[in-house]
Design a protein that fits this description.
Structural class: alpha/beta
Shape: globular
CATH architecture: Alpha-Beta Barrel
Number of helices: 11
Distance between the termini: 45 Å
Largest sheet: 5 strands, parallel
Oligomer: single chain
Helix content: 40-55%
CATH class: Alpha Beta
CATH superfamily: Phosphoenolpyruvate-binding domains
Strand order of the largest sheet: 2-3-4-7-8
Order of helices and strands: HEHEHHEHEEEHEHHEHEHEH
Length: about 260
């Protein structure tokens, strides 16, 4: 059941935070509804993470904050209410909510943690780093004032658009200084973990991990090293993001195609 009080929610936050261990990463196969969240728990994983791609799709919307915040957070609440482990919510870029309102909504949903992106989806570009760090600091402050030990995973989106555009690993070296600048600003703002989504090349990733002072989350991209190698690099958290959702839908499509074959 969803935590009904801070006395129930705080231990889930603390457990989630404690599982961020560099070299022994927390594995997060992302879920998109209560059924998939329960499957994650049944498979033995200690935490459920949501994927905004899958959640938005089940609600009939595209990703990147096209779904209403109340619908996305309502889905998060149902997921948190369906399992007894910590749930970390992909809250996209915060739905243009003020920090106190976002924290209140996440707390009401029973979220032990959240992902927060530094992409301004309305403008189609990255947020100004100083303004975003100030906003993240406000999220931390609002959570602290509510005695809510929310685990904040700050996404650093510097590598994301170039990766989607097909940029090769050499580009990751070029983008590393800006990614490190953003990560450090967010750590100083009080986040618990940083997530350079799209960073997959081993050497830039090693340098990123060595130079930041917080646990690092990476996405299990097809071109990324396997989990054992990521662990050896010092990664503390590995997310599958939307890939399990994509695989599930592809399998569903194959099954439907087989049903449509002539008898």
């Amino acid at each position: 059941m969803r935590p009904s009080s801070d006395a129930e929610l705080s231990p889930r936050c603390d457990l989630l935070r404690s599982l961020h261990r560099p070299g022994a990463p927390l594995l997060l196969p992302n879920a998109w509804d209560v059924a998939t969240a329960k499957a994650v728990v049944a498979a033995g994983f200690p935490v459920v993470a949501t994927t905004s791609v899958g959640v938005a799709a089940t609600l009939g919307y595209d990703d990147h904050e096209h779904a209403p915040a109340e619908a996305m957070l309502g889905a998060a609440a149902r997921i948190a209410g369906g399992v007894t482990v910590p749930v970390t919510v992909d809250a996209e870029a915060g739905y243009r909510m003020q920090p106190a309102a976002l924290v209140s909504a996440l707390r009401s949903a029973g979220a032990a943690g959240c992902n927060l992106e530094d992409t301004d989806h309305a403008a189609g570009k990255l947020h100004d780093v100083d303004r975003h760090a100030e906003w993240l600091s406000g999220v931390r402050q609002a959570a602290s004032e509510a005695s809510y030990p929310l685990v904040i995973n700050a996404r650093v989106d510097v590598f994301f658009a170039p990766m989607l555009a097909g940029a090769g690993p050499e580009t990751q070296d070029e983008l590393l200084p800006e990614a490190l600048r953003r990560a450090q600003a967010y750590i100083e703002a009080g986040v618990d973990c940083v997530y350079p989504v799209g960073l997959y090349a081993a050497e830039p990733l090693r340098r990123f991990i060595a130079e930041v002072s917080a646990p690092v989350n990476v996405a299990r991209l097809p071109q990324a090293p396997p989990p054992a190698e990521l662990a050896a690099l010092g990664v503390a958290r590995i997310s599958w993001g939307p890939f399990l959702y994509f695989d599930a839908m592809a399998h569903f499509g194959e099954q439907l195609a087989s049903l449509a074959e002539p008898v």
